[in-house]
Amino acid sequence: MIQKMNRKKGFTLIELMVVVVIIGILAAVAIPAISEFQRKAKSSEASSNLGAIKRSETVYFKGSGTNEATGLAQEPRFLAAAANPATIPAGTKGTFDPTVANWSQLLSVDGQVFYQYQATQAGTGNAATSSVIARGDLDGDSVNGVYQMNGSVAAGEVSWTGLIITNALE
User: Fold this and answer.
1) What is the domain count for the chain?
2) Is residue 8 part of a domain?
3) What is the DSSP secondary structure assignment for residue 21, as one 8-state letter?
4) Can you give 42-94 as a three-state secondary structure string?
5) Is 2 part of a structural domain of the chain?
6) How many of the other CB atoms lie within 10 Å of CB of 65?
7) pLDDT at 123 over 90
8) Domain of residue 24, residue span
9) Is 19 inside a domain boundary?
10) Looking at residue 127, what DSSP letter applies?
11) Whether residue 57 has pLDDT greater than 90
């Protein structure tokens, strides 16, 4: 005769503990990886926007050989624009203000950015130079990541350095 054992249904404490340990190990591995992916995604904003500013600077330089007010010829130059937002965003997005002088000609952004952008210029004609810079503190630790491209002119042609990155994922 076969007897049925009267066993309670459910999991033992050991089985539950094993599941908790496995979940803990997975979380310990996954959370830092996800944070790293988030910072990489946020940092792509800087290289993308600097590329757009670089293209705008090149177009501006090529079209700035005539003074708009007088119509007279002048030495072409790059366009300078003050740091925007005014302070470097630290761990959160900052508000980009396109009404700050010259930014409407250099970059079109939807208000919130992870980086502060700045464009500097010196000289005119073949002596003209420009630097476009993005500074940001993605993790809020007061260490800034800096992205920069430098432009110069030779024989009337604009050339740019590649992207120079310091503390990329900060």
Assistant:
1) 1
2) no
3) H
4) HHHHHHHHHHHHHHHHHHHHHHCCECCCCCCECCCCCCCEEEECCCCCECCCE
5) no
6) 14
7) yes
8) 13-166
9) yes
10) G
11) yes
